[in-house]
Design a protein that fits this description.
This protein is mostly beta strands. The protein has one helix and seven strands. Strands 1, 2, 3, 4, 5, 6 and 7 form a seven-stranded antiparallel beta sheet that branches.
């Protein structure tokens, strides 16, 4: 099970996506994907190279949703820093074994975490489309 420490220094991980504004039609309203004022950056930490379509257990993604105000990065009020960790085995079978996280912007606390029940199942359903 991941702790806050698992996400430390995520900005030093591989950045795998940086989208500005409403550039991803799959997102819709998720992660403020339909708002041109916001950007999204995704970081990846994986214990080994991905084989095929599956990420290995222990893989971590962190996603920032933010805008810029007076030259400073401002995280979205809800869902500004989100993460997912591949746990596998019997955890969240309908979500591919992923655990979803909402973090405080300074990564000092985990605001919410879970599997199938996270956000009323929205994480599972949206990520199944992705």
């Amino acid at each position: 099970m991941a702790t806050v420490e698992a996400f430390a220094n995520y900005k030093t991980w591989q950045s795998i996506d940086y989208s500005i504004g409403a550039t991803n039609p799959v997102l819709g309203g998720a992660h403020i994907g339909n708002n041109d004022a916001y950007s999204r950056r995704v970081y990846l930490k994986s214990p080994v190279q991905k084989e095929g379509a599956e990420y290995p257990i222990g893989t971590i993604f962190v996603k920032e949703t933010f805008t810029w105000e007076n030259g400073k990065q401002q995280f979205a009020n809800a869902g500004g820093v989100l993460a997912m960790v591949k746990r596998g085995e019997d955890f969240n079978k309908s979500g591919g074994g992923w655990e979803w996280f909402e973090m405080s912007p300074g990564l000092s606390t985990i605001v919410g975490r879970g599997g199938e029940e996270m956000m009323g199942g929205m994480c599972n359903s949206c990520h199944a489309l992705a």
